[in-house]
């Protein structure tokens, strides 16, 4: 069974629209971490955020915000006022004790921001 | 210099060739990783090195052979590959293995096997 599900394969929006990328995870551990990474066309994955399972506070960083809800096992990512430079593939990942903290990756969501 | 550098960026090889991918990190990290990224599949962890010792080998075929001569360099030696091995190979490093440290990635080596 998939442990990290990113159901949206591809999303296309017009610049300045808000967009939310969904991430649903599955774990039996009480201690775990959730991540978002961005992969622009150049190829390298860029770390965006890490959240531990004991901190459900939402986080905002500029136009980026993250909504962590343990009740629904979701860790969604919202970009406000999207820009063309936000176009990339975004990956959600889970790190848990059972897997020795190795990252378990979702399949990624390709985000296309049209000018 | 960028944190993690991979060379070559692109590589085309025949099934009988022997080639190597190189990764170098300038971050003073103790753990290094090889990942394989194929189209429409989640990233696959191939190998993990911690303090130059291999600590993970996720059932990778023996035609892929990693080498970590020191904590800053990581190689992936390739021989008798198959066309299905064509993919983007990503190198990453972290401060330490495990403990949910963030990973720093290189831009990858795009491998095409003919």
Please explain how this structure is put together.
Chain A is mostly beta strands and 115 residues long. Chain A is 0% helix and 52% strand. In chain A, the strands form three sheets. In chain A, strands 2, 5, 6, 10, 11 and 12 form a six-stranded mixed beta sheet that branches. In chain A, strands 3-9-8-7 form a four-stranded antiparallel beta sheet, with no helix packed on it. Chain B has 114 residues and is mostly beta strands. In chain B, 0% of the residues lie in helices and 56% in strands. Chain B is built from no helices and eleven strands. Chain B has strands at residues 4-7, 10-13, 18-25, 31-37, 44-50, 53-57, 64-70, 73-79, 87-94, 104-105, 109-113. In chain B, the strands form two sheets. In chain B, strands 2, 4, 5, 6, 9, 10 and 11 form a seven-stranded mixed beta sheet that branches. In chain B, strands 1-3-8-7 form a four-stranded antiparallel beta sheet, with no helix packed on it. Chain B is globular and about 35 Å long. The mean pLDDT of chain B is 90. Chain A binds chain B through residues 4, 33, 35, 37, 42-47, 50, 52, 91, 95, 100-103, 105-108, and chain B through 4, 40-43, 45, 48, 56, 88, 90, 92, 97-100, 102-108, 110.
């Amino acid at each position: 069974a998939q442990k990290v599900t990113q159901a949206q394969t591809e999303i296309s929006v017009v610049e300045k629209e808000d967009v939310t990328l969904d991430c649903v995870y599955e774990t039996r551990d009480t201690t775990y971490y959730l991540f978002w990474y961005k992969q622009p066309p150049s190829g390298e994955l860029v770390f965006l955020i890490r959240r531990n399972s004991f901190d459900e506070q939402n986080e905002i960083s500029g136009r980026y915000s993250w909504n962590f809800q343990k009740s629904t096992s979701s860790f969604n990512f919202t970009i406000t006022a999207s820009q063309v430079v936000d176009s990339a593939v975004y990956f959600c990942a889970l790190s848990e004790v059972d897997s020795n903290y190795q990252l378990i990756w979702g399949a990624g969501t390709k985000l296309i921001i049209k000018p | 210099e960028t944190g993690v550098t991979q060379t070559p960026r692109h590589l085309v090889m025949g099934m009988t060739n022997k080639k190597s991918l190189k990764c170098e990190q300038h971050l003073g990290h103790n753990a290094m990783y090889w990942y394989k990224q194929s189209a429409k599949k989640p990233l696959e962890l191939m190998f993990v090195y911690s303090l130059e010792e291999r600590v993970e080998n996720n059932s990778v075929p023996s035609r892929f052979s990693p080498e970590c001569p020191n904590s800053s360099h990581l190689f992936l030696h390739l021989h008798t590959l198959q066309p299905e091995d064509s993919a983007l190979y990503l190198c990453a490093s972290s401060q330490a293995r495990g403990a949910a440290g963030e990973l720093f990635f290189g831009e990858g080596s795009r491998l095409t096997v003919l």
